[in-house]
Fold each of these.
Amino acid sequence: MKPIEDIFPLLNQTKRIVIVPHQKPDADAMGASLALSHFLKQFGHSISIISPTNWAGWLNWMPGCNEVVDYDMFKEKAEKILDQAEWVFCLDFNALHRTKNLATKLEHVTCPRILIDHHQQPDEKKFEWGISNTNKSSTCEMIYDFIYASGHSDKFTKEMIDCIYAGVVADTGSFRFSSTTAAVHQLVADLKERGLEHMHVHNDLFDNFLENRMRFIGHVLINRMEVFYEYNTVLLVIPKSDLLRFQVKTGDTEGLVNYPQSIRGIKLVAIVIDRDEERKWSFRSKGDFDCNTFARKYFEGGGHYNASGGRSSLSLDETVKNFHIAMKENIHLLQ
Ligand code: 5GP
Ligand code: MN
């Protein structure tokens, strides 16, 4: 993978560019894709964003979201766009399989793939150019850096500012995680000087759900949460029946994994959701428990040191049993 700086002199040559975030894009992946799109459009490029799957409805406020193509729904259209692409930016993921059904197509595009990402262990050989920096709070912060480094800081627009700020807020847990460096706060100061209305973005991100999600969270915390004090671990297990009962949609389960972290002494929180196609795991830790290694070793996943995800094709009961085994094997790291 050649350094991202190598593409700066090429930005002025108009191209057909596709931007792809990871599957089920979150505020960082979607924010980064939209901010980059708004930036590149100013050079006269033709830009399409193709999301591997659908995304949470509460992200639809993001400017430009209505133009994002959902690959699962519009496969033919998306593949045609990809066939004509001259560059494909891959944002907020470290390996092509993170784009689910789109991965095979992405693997076979004939044009260069360009990576901008902050996850551990990127599959660098798949990318012609790129930047991977696990010390960065978010891919949105990296898009901000990209704009400055390329010498085009005059091109920030209101749309870009809102999208970048949303991704930074989401991926830093509202400026709380250790990834919240001085540079992150300087970014916010700069965006404020450029006219950021942060209260609107917080409102759009956190006060923008439907009643069913609130009731679902209440139900989960009372009925689906188990605390293992000996292991400083909390496990949330969500069966399919709960998803149906509360009409849970994509994105409604996001953030649930954070609630049990407020219990004193808890080091690891795990949640498993019984989705149609797989059992999806999320892990969050505090301090020196490595969620990336844990997810890689036991649940075909990965991510960051204190936040990762994984999956299983086993039944809900079976994968939960495996979690118990994994937790016991890690007792020395959890106590
Ligand atoms: P979440 O729990 O919010 O889905 O994911 C937490 C972090 O881990 C995110 O940065 C996400 O991109 C990453 N992640 C989630 N699932 C997977 C996975 O299956 N594989 C890898 N490599 N990363 C994942
Ligand atoms: Mn991210």
Amino acid sequence: MTQRQRLGVGMVGYAFMGAAHSHAWRSVNRFFDLPLEVDLAVVCGRDQEKVATAATKLGFRAYETDWKALIRRDDVDLVDICSPGSSHAEIALAALAAGKHVLCEKPLANSVDEARAMAEAARAAEAAGIRSAVGFNYRRLPAATFARDLVAAGRLGTLRHVRAVYLQDWLVDPEFPLAWRLRREIAGSGALGDIGAHIIDLTQFITGQRISSVCALTETFIRERPLPAEESGLSATSGQPGATGQVTVDDAALFLARLDGGAVATYEATRFALGRKNGLRVELNGSDGSLVFDLERLNELEFYDGRADNDVSGFTRILVTEPGHPYLHAWWPPGHGLGYEHSFTHQAADLVTALATGTAPTPSFADGLQVQLVLDAVARSAADGSAWTAVQT
Ligand code: SOE
């Protein structure tokens, strides 16, 4: 068998997204026939002891404590940015300038200006065959991709309603510390950019329509939280009232939207929906059918066929596990089901295939910029007393 060309991956960050991405890089060649062999070359983190441990645990051959050293390495062909949003632009721009492909976690950046610079650098780098993509992974769950295929095939007819929520509850406890996702200077925004970005990308992907205007409100329910133990100097079990800090992002974002294909939409992103753990749900209503995707039942779709005989019509449950369904050829027999982590493996498979065939990966940095423009319009609308606000181009 001919020796496959290697693709050296250098990953920045090794927390939740780092673990999900490295699982994908480790497994993708074992389940997909790809023209490139992924090599987990190096992982980067600021704390030497912690990143050395992460390198061993996640399966990387080496580690660095400076992302600039990672980018300089000859064994790195692709930089995978799994660090907080405040680092995305600086690392992506440097990586592209160094001739490295880039996969950047969502949202693309913490501001429109940063996202524009990244999209422009990505466009310029393409001329030299350097590719880039943003990690909106949910569109690569088989049921989400199949939903897009059903809409594109006209099975719902003319789309009229898009109804999307992303509900979590991990911040309901006021004693939850002031983590980086609660600090504007690191995260850029709160629920809006963290999980709202997902439903913006996913609904635009499935419907093929883009959000053109929004009317929004945001809310921060708990404005002050204990500093993390490593900052307050007090152990979490000291029982002493520790130092606190201000929450500078939204806890919840809700908005109405018009899409450029004529559909009207409602969006809700919150981390205060007590009892909802990762409750991303999209419902589409068209002239000929309706469709529901629910992340907490991610191997299924609910489909209502408006063309069926009314006497026997109703929402049917489609089990999206047949070999002919997206990505399923690589996995198990029908009915065995996939999980959250498979979306990252499919993301890796499609990216490696794009790099090997010299095609543009999706979603691109330009797609990431467009999501950033929607996030910006939502924030401007909320700040402007929930005025209807156009999404800039
Ligand atoms: C938020 O808690 C979060 O971790 C997001 O940041 C991820 O993008 C999402 O996949 C799971 O929830």
